[in-house]
Design goal:
71 residues; mainly alpha; 2 helices; elongated
Length: 71
């Protein structure tokens, strides 16, 4: 997918997760968030493994930037 399309889909997924609340063992609801890393197009990289590393690096960048975001 085009990078903008992939990022938009990832943002929709992140937004869909944001309102989710899960009952913890204590009975209190806890929030859920998603940090998502989007890779550059596979065609610009050296294959799927490189794309996976690229997305993984973006994921950790999202977490370092404060979590609950798409990078």
């Amino acid at each position: 997918a085009e990078p903008a399309v992939a990022a938009a889909l990832a943002e929709r997924l992140r937004g869909a997760v944001a309102p989710v609340r899960v009952d913890a063992v204590t009975g209190s609801p806890i929030g859920v968030s998603a940090s998502i890393g989007v890779s550059r197009p596979v065609a610009t990289l050296a294959g799927w493994e490189a794309a996976a590393r690229d997305a993984d690096a973006a994921l950790y960048e999202a977490k370092r930037a404060g979590r609950d975001r798409v990078v």
